[in-house]
Amino acid sequence: MTSAQSATATIFARMKAGNDARRTSFGLAERRAALDRLADMVRRNETAIIAALRADLGRPEAEAVLMDYLNTLQEIRHARSHLHRWMKPRRVWPTLATLGASGRIEVQPRGTCLIIAPWNLPFHLALGPLASCLAAGNAAIVKPSELTPASSALIARMIAETFPPDLVAVVEGDKVVAEELLALPFDHIFFTGSPAVGRIVMAAAARTLASVTLELGGKSPVIVGPDADLKQAADWITFGKFLNAGQNCISPDHLYVHVSVKEGLVAALRNRIARAYGNGEASPHLTRIVSPGHAARLAALIADGLDKGARVLLSGGQDGQAVGPQLMEGITPDMRLAQEEIFGPILPIHSFDSIDSVIDAINAREKPLALYVFDRDAARIAEITRRTTSGAVGVNLTLVHYSQLNLPFGGVNGSGIGAAHGHAGFLAFSHERAVLRNRFLLLPILFPPYTPRVLRLIGLVKRFLG
Ligand code: NAD
User: Fold this and answer.
1) What percent of the chain has pLDDT over 90?
2) Is residue 456 very low, low, confident or very high in pLDDT (cuts 50, 70, 90)?
3) From ligand 1's centre to the CA of 381, what distance in Å?
4) Model pTM?
5) Which CATH architecture has domain 3-216+416-433?
6) How far is the CA of 196 from the centre of ligand 1 (A)?
7) N or C, fewer C-beta in 10 Å, the chain?
8) Is 249 noted as a catalytic residue in this protein?
9) What span, in angstroms and rounded, lies between the C-alpha atoms of 12 and 387?
10) DSSP 3-state assignment of 109?
11) Residue 440 burial (C-beta neighbours within 10 Å; 0-12, 13-18, 19+)
């Protein structure tokens, strides 16, 4: 065991040893105080957070504030203000078989949790789950992504200054460190990242039977129907696809547009993109691609498409990690663009005649994290919604369901397991314990020995309940 490994094992052992004490000593007041400390920490470090995001991702200040800073503070504030209600035990109605007993659900902390975060919203996706985790009364080890080193170092420093290491600790590093952490018997693992690594995390959790929340990604489609407001669609698709240069789990991945409005939509998209990102790859309003490796991956996706017959409708250019908006058409199923999560500012456009073909194409893939529909025809929106499944549906908008904290946020199977945000996030880090208390249960009259009288009573009960 290396010294770093043994330091992590010591932190973990201390946290785990505190599980019992935290069940009683980490109550409403203490959890609120922890959330206040977390919010203060974020506010005090606003400038440093913006600078780290600029260093790691060239992220414009507006996007740093909107995505990482405000989303994190909103999650903390929401948890703090609802915590009293979320923590209260809930009484349940008796069933016929348990008449005479009172039942309630008590919400307990899971214990010691592991939060593994990705790089695309390095602060929000580490500290947002941490807010839910602390609200639920747990201790946590947080592992930020190694691909955003300035953000990772800042998270480590801020947390060390704010929390005792037996409550919250940050362990920095790459997949080797993540694998070492996954070998420890955590009570819950909250993972945000790719479906491929999600499988590795779930397999590791199976060894200790740790519960998991997997916030994954995938190919989220957007459908523009024949009755869509094209200006509205272009505004929201441009925002959704190119915010953070398309490096969001719920960015529209590809677009299906009804053949009758395709030309109009492409023209509206060109206008909107030109207005937002006039200089293409050189625009100061566009976030950079996180690493040379990911920039090369995007270039390879485009090259593969072009080789196999795809056409470029608009190219914002590429200069290393600066990649401008790209619109492409003529996409066929054998292209990587049609197969892999794009996670960058490339939007493949497919046109369709019949909505059945779009629904079939969506249902033939992994269930997406988000599905967006632009249309004014309520019946068509209802049909698409009814015949497909996804983590969430956005109607005449993109992305913003992420910030509606009264909605659960999560995927289905290939796009994730479990949910985050608000009450759903609190429950992800909680165990709902069933408590049933005997007041005047009549069941003992049916206890053995099974005399003729008891058997007659069982017969009666069977007639009544069977
Ligand atoms: P990733 O899966 O490569 O990495 C995520 C984290 O897992 C990092 O901290 C990384 O160090 C760690 N990791 C890497 N290999 C590992 C291994 N073998 N064992 C254990 N841990 C390992 O994902 P990424 O590239 O950082 O993020 C992009 C992906 O995340 C996309 O698929 C995106 O859709 C998804 N995502 C999902 C959400 C959501 O809320 N559902 C949010 C953001 C990103």
Assistant:
1) 97
2) very high
3) 32
4) 0.96
5) 3-Layer(aba) Sandwich (3.40)
6) 8
7) C
8) yes
9) 45
10) strand
11) exposed
